[in-house]
Design a protein that fits this description.
The protein is an alpha+beta fold. It has 13 helices and 18 strands. 42% of the residues are buried. The model has no long low-confidence stretch (mean pLDDT 93).
Length: 497
């Protein structure tokens, strides 16, 4: 089976899950009328083109949502402080609310990344070109400008005591000076590879990146001090040779990915607090206190740890760090079990001045999604809220509209995840087709009335246990025999030994 076959499987899965695989005709007509990127300028839009902005993303990424740069702190700031700036592509400048392209994006709510290819939320001529922060191109952006001290503490929004600037959000025009990749930057930062040529070509960018790396570590340390969880999760990436699937390999985290992740988490927090400070309701990304904490306690005990009976993120993180140090080779499986037991994230309406459940895994109270508007609809909605607030205009969404958007985005995200899993399993089923009867070591990743699922390591994929699943629970290890596969439906079936 080649990529075209997998693409057909993916399209069918999209339709089954209530997602649109194709751009509607009206959206095509709107796209045909868009000739250029937005050239809007004005006194409220700062000119930050001279700063040494760069993007860091996957080797094959073409939809560039954000850039980053660091700047010296103002005189009088605490010793070792700096300003960290994240520029987010101004997608709303070309995709206005209620237009056909926006309606398609609002329906799917996310780009769907499958082993057969990407089903983008926005047309690729926008997301990979006109609304992408491509190297050497002038682009409008929303800038989250964060004042951060040496300990990784982000300053509140607005003016601070003593007249110092706190964290800010504003509009600007920017230019990406270097489109970089995670793997090359990580190897260089770790001393395992040469300086990337694009880094060497921009004066001072090497020092910039090392400063950003240092502050990213400080941001992460501050979150962990408040109970953020140390988890290690991986996704598979397909490997093709001459259009034929040959393997599924784990996409391993690295130092550059952590740098960007820490900057985005901080920027999303500042964005949430900015809207709250201006009395504007917003969409929040939440991960509630886990309902299956009792099972998390049991899993910790099985690994020699002890957790309190009541949910405690700091205690869980301490256990995870200890378990990673004791058995790093097995930490990925433990992380997967904990992730499954934590439950899924969701979007929810947050009204200004009212408490929010926050994000249990990140140990943050104020958290939105705002840094990926080319591929996530909640981020585009948040961008419109920011721009209206900055302009002093009427907020473009009523509370009941935001609540409905939050629920729909959560549902469609779940549907997209199921499509992605199904196509990964279809790809894995192809690789396993000649291994019927083989025995695999496995870890239980799901257990409910609907069934029991396990994950094997090679290829890194989940399947259902048809016989012998009684008594198995998430996080347990077992052995399974491959019973059969169905690539068309993405079925991988095991029997427990």
């Amino acid at each position: 089976m080649n990529t075209d076959d997998l693409r057909q499987i993916a399209r069918h899965a999209m339709q089954q899950r209530g997602l649109q695989a194709d751009l509607p005709a009206a959206a095509h007509r709107q796209l045909d009328a868009i000739r250029h990127t937005s050239l809007e300028r004005g006194s409220a839009i700062r000119d930050l083109r001279a700063l040494p902005w760069c993007s860091i993303d996957n080797d094959d990424s073409r939809d560039l949502d954000q850039l980053s740069v660091s700047m010296p702190a103002e005189a009088g700031s605490p010793p070792g402080a700096a300003r960290l700036l994240v520029a987010v592509a101004d997608v709303d400048s070309l995709v206005q609310a209620g237009t056909p392209i926006d309606q398609h994006a609002a329906f799917n709510t996310t780009s769907v990344y499958t082993a057969a290819g990407v089903f983008p939320m926005l047309p690729e001529r926008l997301s990979t070109d006109l609304t992408s922060l491509n190297e050497g191109q002038e682009r409008l952006a929303i800038v989250v400008d964060m004042a951060v001290d040496a300990q990784g503490r982000v300053a509140p929004v607005g003016q601070l005591d003593g007249g110092q600037r706190g964290s800010e959000v504003y509009r600007a025009v920017v230019v990406n000076k270097a489109q970089l990749t995670y793997n090359a930057v990580a190897a260089w930062l770790d001393g395992q590879g040469p300086i990337p040529p694009k880094v060497a070509a921009v004066h001072g960018l090497d020092a910039q990146l090392r400063l950003q790396d240092r502050f990213a570590s400080a941001l992460e340390a501050d979150r962990h001090a408040h109970g953020a969880l140390s988890l290690e999760t991986t996704e598979n990436r397909p490997v093709f040779a001459d259009g034929v699937l040959t393997d599924l390999l784990p996409d391993i985290g690295n130092r550059a990915k952590e740098l960007i992740s820490n900057f985005m988490i901080a920027a999303n927090g500042v964005t949430a607090r900015f809207l709250d400070a201006h009395g504007v309701a917003s969409l929040r990304r939440m991960l509630r206190v886990p309902e299956r904490w009792d099972r998390i306690v049991e899993v910790a005990a099985e690994h020699g740890g002890k957790l309190p009976n009541a949910p405690d993120a700091a205690a869980l993180d301490a256990f995870l760090r200890s378990a990673r140090d004791a058995a790093p080779a097995r930490f990925g499986d433990l992380s997967l079990a904990i992730v499954k037991l934590l439950g899924r994230g969701e979007y929810a309406l947050a009204r200004p001045g009212r408490p929010s459940p926050g994000h249990f895994g990140l140990a943050v109270r104020d958290y939105t999604h705002s840094t990926a508007p080319n591929r996530r609809y909640p981020d585009l909605v948040t961008q419109r809220l920011i721009k209206a607030t900055l302009a002093g205009d009427r907020v473009p969404y009523a509370d009941d509209e935001l609540n409905a958007i939050a629920q729909h985005c959560t549902e469609q995200e779940d549907a997209a995840n199921k499509v992605e899993r199904q196509v990964r399993k279809s790809a894995a089923a192809l690789l396993l087709a000649d291994k019927i009867g083989a025995v695999f070591d496995a870890i239980v990743t799901g257990a409910s009335q609907k069934g029991t699922w396990v994950r094997i390591a090679h290829p890194n994929v989940e399947g259902r246990v048809l016989h012998g699943a009684d008594g198995l629970d998430v996080g347990e290890r077992t052995q399974v025999r491959l019973r059969g596969v169905d690539a068309q439906r993405g079925f991988i079936d095991f029997d427990r030994i």
